[in-house]
C-alpha cells in the first residue's frame, strides 16, 4: 500500500504541527515545478517528465515506489552518470566531489545542475519524512 505525501504525510503533519504541512508542501512544489524551459542550449523544453523521473528515482533509491509511475521513464531519461550522481548526493553526500559534479551533464549550465541538486535534496527530505510519518501513523493506530 502506498504511503504518499499527498494522501497521508501532508495531513498527518498538519494534524501534529498545524501549518507546517502547508509550508513543506509549498517548498516541495516550488522546487519540483521550477523550470526555465531550457536544457543546455535548447529553449522551450518541457522538463516536467525529467523532473518527475529524478524525483521518483530519488524515492526509489530509498525504497519508495509508486504503482502509478512507469519506472521505464527513469531509464530512458536519466543517463548512467546522472544516476550515479543522484545516488552519491542522496545517499553519500560526503562523497560528493567537484569531479563527480562535473562528470554528469557536461554541456549544461551550472544553474541547471543546481536545480538538479535542489530536486535531489527536497525529494530526499520528502522520502525521509514519509518514513518518519509512516512510523508515527503505525504507532498511532
TrEMBL record:
- Top-level taxon of the source organism: Eukaryota
- The stretch of residues making up the signal peptide is none
User: What InterPro entries does the entry give?
Assistant: Sestrin
Q: Name one GO molecular function term.
A: oxidoreductase activity, acting on peroxide as acceptor
GO BP term, example: cellular response to leucine starvation
The record's GO CC annotations read:
nucleus
Q: What name appears for this protein in its UniProt entry?
A: SESN2 protein
Amino acid at each position: 500500500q502506498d504511503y504518499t505525501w499527498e494522501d497521508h504525510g501532508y495531513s498527518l503533519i498538519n494534524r501534529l504541527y498545524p501549518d507546517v504541512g502547508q509550508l513543506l508542501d509549498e517548498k516541495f512544489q516550488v522546487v519540483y515545478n521550477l523550470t526555465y524551459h531550457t536544457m543546455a542550449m535548447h529553449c522551450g523544453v518541457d522538463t516536467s517528465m525529467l523532473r518527475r523521473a529524478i524525483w521518483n528515482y530519488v524515492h526509489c533509491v530509498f525504497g519508495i515506489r509508486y504503482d502509478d509511475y512507469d519506472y521505464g521513464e527513469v531509464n530512458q531519461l536519466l543517463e548512467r552518470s546522472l544516476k550515479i550522481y543522484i545516488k552519491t548526493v542522496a545517499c553519500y553526500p560526503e562523497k560528493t566531489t567537484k569531479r563527480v559534479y562535473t562528470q554528469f551533464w557536461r554541456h549544461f549550465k551550472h544553474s541547471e545542475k543546481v536545480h538538479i541538486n535542489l530536486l535531489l535534496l527536497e525529494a530526499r527530505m520528502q522520502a525521509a519524512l514519509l518514513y518518519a510519518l509512516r512510523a508515527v501513523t503505525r504507532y498511532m493506530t
